[in-house]
Amino acid sequence: MKNTEKKPIFFDIPADAVLPDYDGYSIAAIPSLISTAFGAPDPRAAALHAAVEHVIPDGIEKVVLLVLDGVGYDHLERILAAHPELALHRLIDSGAMLPITSVFPPTTVSALTTYSTGLTPQEHGMVGYRLYLRETSTITNMIRMSVLGSGKGDSALDEGIDPKTFLGVSTLYSRLRRAGVESHILIGKHISGSGLSSIIYDGKEKVHGTVTLSDMLVSARRILMRTQGKTFLSLYWGAPDGIAHTYGPWTDEFTAELRAIDAAIERELIGQVENTLLIISADHGFVPMRESDYHDLTAIPELEHALLLPPLGEPRASYLYLREGTRKRVMAAFEEHLEDGLVVIDSDTALASGLFGAGPVREAVRDRIGDLIVVSTGPAAILHPYKDAIKLKGMHGGLTRDEMLVPLIVAKL
């Protein structure tokens, strides 16, 4: 790993685009906030802790982190305004709620790894959903850890990827264990054994696979009531993300899911446990998508023939690998054919600017982000030509406010 000083962003983006706030108000500071709440101050959490320390009691014994996949700050605010009966209002009134940023790219792989390590994407190397891994010379789905062309869910492990060493960094759970804090992970059964889960949850006491949010919160309550001493529970609920992808984010289905989450929190947690701090946040928000918002690069000959590999990363944050001598032609083709808020950034420029984080840049990151990055700051996305890629009604990965801003709620249960 090499040290890279954080520099100002020096590529052109619209004024209303939102960049990650790695200096303090981002999800990258939440693991440090958790350590600080347990009595081990971490300088990475200084700004965030100062904003919420008035609602964190001294000597807290237990902390619950609930990550809601796909719940943006503005979206949650609108739902709260429309539903004054929600229990979250009482938590916020007695605690605090503020907007913070996701990381770049604002996507589940990058964000969940940040939650598990306290590191930014350039430090931990998990920079997207589908990546070229030089270690195995394969295109790999980073959630399933499956190699392109293989039907096996964790086929990257057969190619030599060791989940125990792949990250190469310490997890939050390992650090908490050394500090005498027991960590439990509660996630859906269907992902409890996934490739990503095997990589990012090292150091935990146990992974508890659950079926619904209700039984997840029941399990959380039971763990909190039976454990002695300092205990950390990390809960991840992915249903809002699935609903927003399928139906779109601004839908009755999404609102109904948020109301159901609220009811489950009220029923199973609020007032049920003692000396427990609840932290609620998200990995990213969402934007609605139309079929016409997806741009097929194969329809533009100058682009199709210039690419060494299909687009990687995310549809709204795509990594392009170019054939030698084609850069000028590719840039000209983008200027001529693609608009709708797509911004083309040189990958080295993105790294040097601090778009992917602060701190040391992991060597593997440079290989994983290609030559150019096509980032969406508007409605458009790049259609990725894979069998499992479809034109979803909601997406994330770009630099719009709706994708980048997520809520942080901190309250005593």
In short:
With 413 residues, the chain is α/β, with parallel strands linked by helices.
Can you describe what's shown?
- This protein has 413 residues and is of the alpha/beta class.
- Helices cover 34% and strands 20% of the residues.
- The strands form 5 sheets. A 7-stranded mixed β-sheet has the order 2-18-9-1-8-6-7. A 4-stranded antiparallel β-sheet has the order 12-13-15-14.
- α12 packs antiparallel against α13.
- The two termini are 41 Å apart.
Topology readout:
Layout: H1 30-37, H2 46-52, E1 62-68, H3 73-82, H4 88-94, E2 96-101, H5 108-117, H6 121-124, E3 130-133, E4 138-141, E5 146-147, H7 155-158, H8 172-178, E6 182-188, H9 189-192, H10 195-200, E7 206-210, H11 213-226, E8 231-237, H12 239-247, H13 252-268, E9 276-282, E10 287-288, E11 294-295, H14 301-304, E12 312-314, E13 317-320, H15 327-337, E14 342-346, H16 347-353, H17 363-368, E15 372-376, E16 381-382, E17 394-395, H18 401-404, E18 405-412
Helix pairs in contact: 11-13, 12-13
